[in-house]
Amino acid sequence: MKSHWFLSCFAALSVSAAPTHNTATPGGKLPKPLKVSLVQVASGFVDPVRVTPAPDGSNRLFVCERTGVVRLVKDGKTADKPFLDIHDTVVSSFLEQGLYDLEFHPKFAENGKFYVHYSDMWFNGASFIVEYKVSDKNPDRADPESARVVMQMARPYANHNGGEIAFGPDGYLYIGSGDGGWEGDVLGAGQDLSSLLGKLLRVDVDHPSSDRGYAIPKDNPFLTPLMQMKLFGVSEEAFNKIHPNARPEIWAYGLRNPWSFQFDPKTGDLYIADIGQNHFEEIDFQPAGKGGLNYGWKFMCGTYPFPLPIDESGKPKLDAVKDAPRVGEMPIAEYSHVDQGNCVMGFGVYRGTKYPTMDGVYFTGDWGSGKLWGLARDGAGKWQMQELLDTKLMFTGAGQSKDGTIYITDAHANYGGPADPAQNARGSLWKLVPADQVPAGAVTAPLE
Ligand SMILES: [Ca+2]
Ligand SMILES: [Ca+2]
Questions:
Q1: Which of 108, 361, 431, 432 has the fewest CB atoms found within 10 Å of its own CB?
Q2: DSSP 47
Q3: Are 195 and 189 in contact (CB under 8 A)?
Q4: Mean pLDDT along residues 64-85
Q5: pLDDT value of position 376
């Protein structure tokens, strides 16, 4: 009798140790029925990787070409002269390098400032965040002489550079920084708080000092104030907040390659599309303002431990790890490389008034498969991921205008392709709309 009780107790323990998480996979159903289309806005770009709508309601779109050129699109027409051309500073010979993003200062209307993130040729591919100003004389031109370096991060390898930059609702600049590259986080950067790699960073660009192009926001999560050492009378929780080796710029960690992330314009919640290794892609979530979260890399890739055990045919043995301990925050969505794609792209949460059926849905897609999904919580709070389109496009990035419209870029560059981006097939700019809102005669994304 006693022994029977003992055994059943263990059985109960084993069940409760099994991981539970609110992680959606494709095949779910959005709370509200939704059908979408992608309408072409402009085409003919050299490896477009991001689009940034003008913050001033002027109907201008700024398209980042990977080579280091920012093209200006006005009413569907691409201007002959670029807004900014820094191709002689940007290295783009490897596909993951180049100009990554452009963001306008929240007070752009008053100060004319904007920021670019790119891979610098002269510093061996280091990530540069540089501030520029728009020309005094012409709003369609940047002033190339206004450059001020905000931040510089050495990059040991050519891949996993992150890329997206965005101002949060708090006015601080957030920077997606990849794990430094090669594969498998050979530097152990994701979990290393003394490294800026494998992180989401948060800095104050408005208060540069003599040795830094930015200031550290006072409420960043890993600041350790000067203090006297106390051995006793300090709680374990208080010790857990002391990080003398941590870089104060860090906002979140345990990321592999956060190439894209977006704030929900209404709630301030943050969605990070973290590009995975060989088996899974994931979407991470941060409730508004909650810094310091660990997204698990490289202990985890998606909801699975890393590295995964593999069978003779190269397939991961998922059953073998189903009860393994999990580290950090689990993603709100994940999908497999087997049939869904290989490189996740975040597009943002729609909060405009024009298309109510899209309200509150986070959109995401995959560069490799051309699939596009919607992600939202159902009435029970469970995340649902529904495939909305299966296109022939290769998504690279996105941007959202003040009115909520989501624009998406696609570029047919590939890993085995030519090193010279100019040789790649030209990419396009698209607008996400409900399927019943496609204007007559519009070009829509080719479907599988
Ligand atoms: Ca951005
Ligand atoms: Ca993760």
A1: 108
A2: S
A3: yes
A4: 97
A5: 98
Domain boundaries defined on the chain: 20-437
Q: How many separate helices (H) and strands (E) can be counted in the chain?
A: 3, 27
User: Cα separation of 37 and 404, whole Å?
Assistant: 16
pLDDT per residue as tens digits for the range 265-298:
999 999 999 999 999 999 999 999 999 999 999 9
Distance 154 CA to ligand 2 centre (A): 23
Q: Which residue has the tokens 């009798």?
A: 1
* Alpha helices by DSSP H, 18-164: 108-111
Give the end-to-end CA distance of the chain in Å, rounded to a whole number: 62
Q: Are 115 and 102 in contact (CB under 8 A)?
A: yes
| Each residue's pLDDT tens digit, 29-59 | 999 999 999 999 999 999 999 999 999 889 9
* Distance from Cα 399 to the centre of ligand 1, integer Å: 7
Q: How far is the CA of 276 from the centre of ligand 2 (A)?
A: 8
Distance 282 CA to ligand 2 centre (A): 7
Strands 165-167 and 270-274 come out as unpaired
Tokens of 340: 């869904």
pTM of the model: 0.94
Distance 23 CA to ligand 2 centre (A): 11
Instruction: Find the farthest-apart pair of alpha carbons in the chain and give their distance in angstroms, rounded.
Output: 89
Give dist(CA 4, CA 1) in Å, integer: 5
